[in-house]
Design brief:
alpha+beta, Translation, Eukaryotic Peptide Chain Release Factor Subunit 1, Chain A, Nucleotidyltransferase, domain 5, 60s Ribosomal Protein L30, Chain: A, 4-stranded mixed sheet, 11 helices
């Protein structure tokens, strides 16, 4: 992961005791009420830990915020798979996560971001562009829920080409001169429909790519193979993932769609980690990387960490030290990679590749 949400980054750069709380809120086999009850137990633990650092007045103010959230039925009725909550000096941030995490309460002088990084590295918020011959539909997903996006302001086919009937056998329109309405050349109806489709795709590509520019989320294609291939012939921006869903969105049920999306992100993560491990191995061989904590800390002091690798089975005793390195790494515009235990190439719990 090479960036943090600006608000999380800002809070992490401040100095004061902070609460980091993680809770899974699964959609299957649970109800909003049970999630709220589990949260109530977590904030009791938070109160005990915060009491060691805060005076009575400050503790009361912090706990009032958490207790209000525990009673907020709107909040509990609209959850993703999990969330991370950060609280410092009455400033509370809640970050929805796309996959389950272990329930956890940490109080220290710096945000505990490692579970968030691991979850977001695996599956991030994304868009699904369901593309048809003369229509499209855009959805935003978070790994558990899918919502239709309608704020893009993009015209439909019939709005863009009001003189064309997408279901007709012949395309016609008006010439700019005195000729009035006339048939376009001698192409077949199928050829004209293909030309109209490509024109529409070019319009969509120009406007959708601009829409996605500041969203910082990948886009997964769905649709019939022919339409997705035609779309890729005009849309080459990297925001559109290479791997697609393979068929139209309406052909999926909720569970098969979730599995297909997870599979795409699994493949992306596996490829990225493989490239990372290859880069790390080369760096270790060339003396441009290290698995020694002392070397990594020195590189952090000199702002020379390019990529920090942390294995997901880190020890609790290492937590605050690792969180500090994560903060340092993001401050120097470095990248942080959480490495699953299953990756055998990562023999140590921490490693870093350096800048030269």
């Amino acid at each position: 992961m090479d960036r943090l949400h600006p608000k999380i980054r800002k809070m992490n750069d401040e100095a004061a005791t902070v609460l980091s709380l993680y809770q899974s809120t699964p959609h299957e086999g649970s109800d909003p009420g049970s999630n709220a009850i589990r949260f109530k137990n977590l904030i009791k633990e938070a109160e005990e830990k915060l009491a060691k650092y805060l005076d009575r007045k400050a503790l009361k103010e912090q706990m009032e915020l958490l207790q209000d959230l525990q009673k907020d039925t709107v909040f509990w009725n609209d959850r993703s798979e999990a969330f991370a909550l950060f609280l410092r000096d009455r400033n509370m941030l809640i970050y929805n996560l796309s996959e389950a995490v272990d329930d956890l309460v940490v109080v220290q002088g710096i945000l505990h971001l490692l579970p968030l990084l691991a979850a977001e590295q695996h599956i991030s918020s994304h868009y699904i562009l369901d593309i048809g011959r003369d229509r499209f539909r855009l959805h935003r997903g978070d790994g558990s829920k899918l919502k239709v996006v309608e704020d893009h302001g993009i015209l439909t086919f019939t709005e863009l080409f009001p003189d064309l009937d997408p279901d007709s056998d012949v395309n016609f329109g008006s010439y700019g001169g005195k000729g009035g309405t006339a048939f376009h050349g001698h192409r077949s109806a199928a050829e004209m429909k293909e030309i109209d489709k490509i024109k529409y795709y070019r319009y969509l590509e120009e406007n959708l790519t601009a829409y996605f520019a500041d969203k910082r989320s990948p886009v997964i294609l769905s649709g019939v193979r022919e339409n997705m291939a035609d779309w890729r012939s005009v849309a080459t921006n990297e925001v559109y993932l290479k791997e697609d869903l393979g068929k139209p969105l309406h052909d999926f049920d909720p569970q098969s769609l979730k599995a297909a999306i997870l599979n795409i992100f699994d493949n992306i993560q596996n490829e990225e980690i493989k490239r990372g491990m290859d880069s790390l191995a080369k760096g270790l061989a060339d003396g441009k990387a290290s698995t020694r904590m002392s070397d990594i800390k020195n590189a952090a002091d000199e702002c020379k960490i390019e990529t920090l690798y942390i294995r997901s089975d880190y020890c609790d005793e290492e937590r605050e030290e690792l969180d500090q390195l994560v903060r340092d790494c993001f401050q120097m515009a470095g990248n942080v990679v959480m490495v699953p235990v299953s990756v055998k190439e990562m023999e140590k719990r921490i490693a870093a590749r350096f800048r030269y």
